[in-house]
């Protein structure tokens, strides 16, 4: 049995979704010293890059994503992602407590990979079962 990389409840990643990904990745490189790792994406027939930003050659800092394609409906802001044990059960609880589903990503088998929700006060965050 493999050991989990993240603990349930731990913030594991943050993405900035924006319509200015190319210029903002340069901003964060200059201001924070991050390095970019392009991630190939497609929107219909058009190809573009999102960016995994790294502290050094191995240590991730976060992501800077274009607000298009699979990210078109994600609000333009930094979004933190939290590790949960069961995405479906956590989403059900979030909805029962007044949350609003903003975006969902499904695996090839149809199960939820991760979701982005808005809490009752309007703050947006994501969660998934990250290992």
Automatic annotation (TrEMBL):
Source organism, top-level taxon: Bacteria
UniProt domain VOC: residue ranges: 10-130
UniProt-listed InterPro entries: Anthracycline_SecMetBiosynth, Glyas_Bleomycin-R_OHBP_Dase, Glyas_Fos-R_dOase_dom, VOC_core
One matching Pfam family: Glyoxalase
Listed name of the protein: VOC family protein
Organism: Sphingobacterium daejeonense
Classification of source organism: Bacteria, Pseudomonadati, Bacteroidota, Sphingobacteriia, Sphingobacteriales
């Amino acid at each position: 049995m493999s050991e989990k990389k993240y603990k349930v409840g731990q913030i594991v990643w943050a993405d900035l979704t924006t319509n200015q990904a190319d210029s903002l990745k340069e901003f964060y490189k200059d201001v924070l010293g991050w390095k970019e790792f392009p991630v190939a994406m497609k929107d219909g027939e058009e190809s573009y890059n999102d960016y995994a930003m790294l502290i050094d050659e191995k240590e991730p800092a976060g992501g800077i994503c274009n607000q298009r394609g699979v990210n078109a409906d994600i609000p333009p802001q930094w979004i933190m992602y939290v590790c949960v044990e069961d995405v479906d059960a956590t989403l059900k609880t979030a909805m029962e407590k007044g949350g609003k589903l903003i975006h969902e990503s499904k695996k090839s088998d149809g199960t939820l990979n991760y979701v982005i929700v808005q809490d009752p006060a309007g703050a947006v965050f994501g969660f998934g079962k990250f290992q």
